[in-house]
Each structure stands twice: as structure tokens, then as C-alpha cells.
Amino acid sequence: MKKCVKLMLILSLIAGSGMVWMATGVNAESPAENRTGPPDPEERPAQEVYKNIQVLKGLSKAEFDGTMTFMSLSLGVRCNYCHVQIPNSPKLNLESDDKPQKEIARDMIKMVHSLESGAIGRKGAVNCYTCHRGQSTPLSVPTIAKGAPAKPEPAATLVKADASTVTVDQILDRYVEALGGKAALERATSRMFKATRTLNGTGALAMTIYEKIPNKSLSVTTTKDNTFYAGFNGFINWSANDKGPPDKHHVQMALAKRDAEFYKPLKLKQMFEKMTLLGKEKVGDRELYVIQAIPLDPNPEKLYFDVQTGLLVRRYREYRTALGPIPSLTDYEDYREVDGIKIPFLVRYSSNSSIVLLTISEAKLNIAIEDEKFDGPPRPLPPQ
């Protein structure tokens, strides 16, 4: 089901495709920004790509796909909850209105728009998740406790930082030094990581990540029966497996470019239009500086730096859709030194539906990696 494959791709981009964020998009001078050629297919109006759009009009294909992902996550369902499955096929009939859930969804979107423009008067105040909370049928009756009511965990307290004692520039400069310094970072031109990937604590899979200047990345995940590839060559995202041709995607190129930046720590102020120190927040037993980072695209981030070590330990981001934001959290732990550069050997991606844990077992810098590796999966050898 290509629609659901696209959903998974969007989620992986939201979480962050760059394996080690200290290291791995394109900067303002990248040729990917200035390339010529046909218009990006993802920027085409969704109504030119999909048929029978009646409510969510005026969106690009990329915006429409992201909004479908938001609805799916908000209700805890897959694409075939509203769309008709074609018999004896993995594909969906996206145009069909045979399922009543699809018409109900249209009515709910109209209700949200009506509330935003009428009684509430504020865009983004309500959306699918406001009521559904990850369930297809929202609860309308308070639940009866089966024991002592669980006390809600207190929200993290943000203490406003004193601008006279620390600035954004000082925090970013200290981050670079904590990683090993500007010169050490610039000596690296490629990286390779071998890791184990688990989803929600199960199914450990072998994974290899390749990254190369200026803005190339590739992950290869091996299962018992297949090998899955996800790459970015500076122009497009693509995904493939051993059992089919590659799919080329232009979904959320701004996120992909930002994640593929090889020298992130040195480029942070160029990657974001505005960076503001919000203050300090305590997470566990650590105090963290919280910096709000506003990019040129509409997907804001918060970066959390350890007050003691200076290292980046958390990244919060939102992927904005027409109905609401999709949040994700990335935590960086177990920093170790490799050839003079500190690298997090444990990376945890958390969304509202899953937790992906990457545990690095081996890291190498400045190894030879062919550029063609990032353009698509290896072609099978011809039969002998």
C-alpha cells in the first residue's frame, strides 16, 4: 500500500533520518538548493494527484500526505480504516467513498474548520487528537478507576535563563568544543556506523548507516528475509528493498536536507532562521539549556544541551500539517570518543506510536564510500 509506505516515510523523517545529529542536509550554498529541472512532484496540488478530494483543498501533495498521517496517528488506525482495500491486492482504492468512515472524516474536518473560524476563533486550537487521543472512537464517559487514580506527572518546569550569564552563541560554541572542536569535526569527511535497531523493545535488526559530505546519507536494515534501504543523495529521498524497484520520494525535503547536513554542529546558526534561549529545564538529574530553533520551513525544533557537559542530549521537533502538528523526541546518550570526536552510541527516537532504539556497536570515520551508493540500492547481478 503505497499510501501507508508514505506514512511510514513521513514518520521516519519526523523522527530524524540523521543517525548522529552532532554530525549529520544541505547548507545555503548546496547545489541541491539551486538545481534546475522539473518541478518537485510533491509541490503539485494534491487535487492534480488524487481524485475525489472534497474538503482538504488547496494543499500540495506533500502537505496532503502529511495531514493524512496526522489523522492516522490521532485515531490510532491505518490507511485502510477509511480507504477501501482492493480485493487480492495490497493497494487501496483511494477514490472510493464506499466506507462510511471516509464521509465521517470529512464531516469532522468541516467541524474543526467551523470551530476554528467560529466559536473558538483560533486556528490550531482543536484537531482530531483533541478528542480521539489515539482511538478510533473517542470516549464520552469518564472511566471508573480500577484502583488508586494515577496522579498525572508534573510538567517539566522551565526556568528562564539569565541572558547576562549565558547566550545562544556561547552554548553552541561550547557544544562544538565538547564534541572535540571545530578542527576535529572538519577533518571528518565520511562516517559509517554499525548498529542494532529495535522497535518498541522487540525485533532487534542489524543496521548500517553511511554518511558523506556534503549532504548524503544511507541506512541499510537487514531482516531474515529482506534488506531495506533508505537514502538521500542531496536531491531526493528514496527507499527500496531487495524485492522491488526503488521508490523516489520528495516528502518533506526541508526536513531531509536539515538532517543530512554533515557538519550540523558547525552549521546550526545557518540552518535555523532564529534561535532563542528559553531557559533551563531539569530532565532526570540533569539540568539542560533549552533553545528554540525556528527554521525557514514551518517545522520548529527545541534543542536541549547539558549544562555540565555542553553536549546535545535531546531534540524535540514538530512536523506541521493542515490539521495539527506531529511531534517527535530524539534522545542522545552514551557519548564516546572516536578519532577525537564524541559520538552518541545510543539514540532513541520517540513518537506517539513507537520508540525506536539505535545502539551503535562500531563507528568509523573517513572511510571510502562511493557517491553512487547514495543514489539507489545495489543492482542485482545478472544471472550466470
What is this structure's SSE topology?
Blueprint: H1 2-15, H2 46-49, H3 61-75, E1 84-85, E2 92-93, H4 100-117, H5 128-132, E3 158-159, H6 168-179, H7 182-187, E4 190-199, E5 202-212, E6 216-222, E7 227-232, E8 237-241, E9 244-249, H8 253-260, H9 264-271, E10 274-283, E11 286-294, E12 301-306, E13 312-320, E14 325-338, E15 341-350, E16 355-365
Antiparallel strand pairs: 1-2, 3-10, 4-5, 4-16, 5-6, 6-7, 7-8, 8-9, 10-11, 11-12, 12-13, 13-14, 14-15, 15-16
Helix pairs in contact: 1-3
**Spatial ordering of strands, largest sheet:** 3-10-11-12-13-14-15-16-4-5-6-7-8-9
Number of strands: 16
H-E string: HHHEEHHEHHEEEEEEHHEEEEEEE
Largest sheet report: 14 strands, antiparallel
As an assembly, this protein is single chain
In helices, the fraction of residues equals 10-25%
How many helices? The count is: 9
| First-residue to last-residue Cα separation | 34 Å
Number of domains: 1
CATH architecture: Clam
Mean pLDDT across all residues, rounded? 81
Computed structural class: alpha+beta
Spans of at least 5 consecutive residues with low confidence = 5-11, 13-38
Rg calculated over all Cα atoms: 22 Å
Strand content: 25-35%
CATH topology: outer membrane lipoprotein receptor (LolB), chain A
Which CATH C-level class is it? Mainly Beta
Q: Any idea what the CATH superfamily is called?
A: Lipoprotein localisation LolA/LolB/LppX
3D shape: globular
